[in-house]
Design goal:
With about 240 residues, the protein is of the alpha/beta class. It has a single domain (about 5-140, about 195-239), classed as Rossmann fold, CATH 3.40.50. The chain is about 30% helix and about 30% strand. It is built from 5 helices and 11 strands, in the order ααββαββαβββββαββ. It has helices at about 5-20, 20-40, 70-80, 110-125, 200-210; strands spanning about 45-50, 65, 85, 95-100, 125-135, 150-155, 160-165, 175-180, 185-195, 215-225, 230-239. The strands form 2 sheets. It has a 7-stranded mixed beta sheet. A 4-stranded antiparallel beta sheet has the order 6-7-8-9, with helices on one face.
Length: about 240
């Protein structure tokens, strides 16, 4: 059974494949992750990426796993011997030293309970550390509520990517998001996805309730998605 984030990974992968700066993108992503790993002096023998990441193949292939990706990305990953694909339902408790769930993975939920379930799942499979990202929703400018900042991907042709967030009138923290790609010859969309704002203090509580030992927002290290210019805070949850 596919997940919302599996479908979202499709557009991340499409944008990466369309870019003429693949080497630059993947090295930057790895540099940020390595900074976190070095900060805690971690030596992860098993790493799980949740969703597609450009830097999958920059880690020792015998230690890298990936989940919540569609068939096209599975074929790309396995044919290039980049990582081991594992179905989410087949992941064992405490199977991975390090779990990496970027691009606001935990906002892909329709309710607080669904977010708690996602956090509990990540906590249940992680031995040492979870790395994830969030925007600062508490201090989010109103102008950022409806659209992401668009980004241009240049390759064989120019493509513009952006997201639209249709917020609920009855629940200001709930929205439906849709990702768009506008090219010279084609326009495509992925979604819609049920999304829910998640606040730092809220995630900290959910994480500690799930058995975490510590929670930290790395304010000097930021993550930027392939398909938007908005910066996201990197958060680590230790066990």
């Amino acid at each position: 059974m596919s997940t919302e984030f599996e479908k979202y990974s499709d557009i991340l992968y499409a944008a990466y494949k369309a870019s003429s700066k693949q080497s630059e993108i993947k090295s930057k992503k790895k540099e940020i992750l390595d900074e976190i790993i070095d900060f805690y002096n971690l030596n992860p023998l098993s790493i799980l990426f949740v969703g597609f990441s450009p830097c999958l193949d920059l880690y020792p292939k015998h230690s890298v796993y990936v989940t919540e990706i569609g068939k096209e990305i599975q074929d790309y990953v396995t044919s290039n011997d980049m990582a081991i694909y594992v179905e989410r339902s087949k992941i064992r408790p405490k199977q991975f030293d390090l779990v990496i769930a970027m691009d606001e993975y935990l906002t892909f939920a329709g309710s607080d309970d669904e977010q708690k379930e996602s956090i509990n799942f990540l906590a249940s499979i992680t031995k040492q550390c979870i790395i994830t990202t969030l925007r600062d929703y508490k201090n989010q400018d109103f102008k950022n509520r409806e659209f992401s900042y668009p980004i241009i991907i240049r390759g064989d042709e120019k493509k513009i990517y952006f997201e639209h967030y249709d917020y609920s009138y009855t629940d200001r923290n709930s929205c439906i998001s849709t990702s768009y790609m506008i090219g010279d010859s084609v326009t495509d969309m992925v979604g819609p996805f049920f999304r829910r704002n998640l606040f730092f203090k809220q995630l900290a509580k959910f994480s500690l309730d799930a058995g975490a030992n510590s929670f930290q927002i790395h304010k000097n290290i930021m993550h930027k998605s392939i398909i938007k210019k908005n910066y996201e805070h990197i958060i680590t949850i230790r066990f």
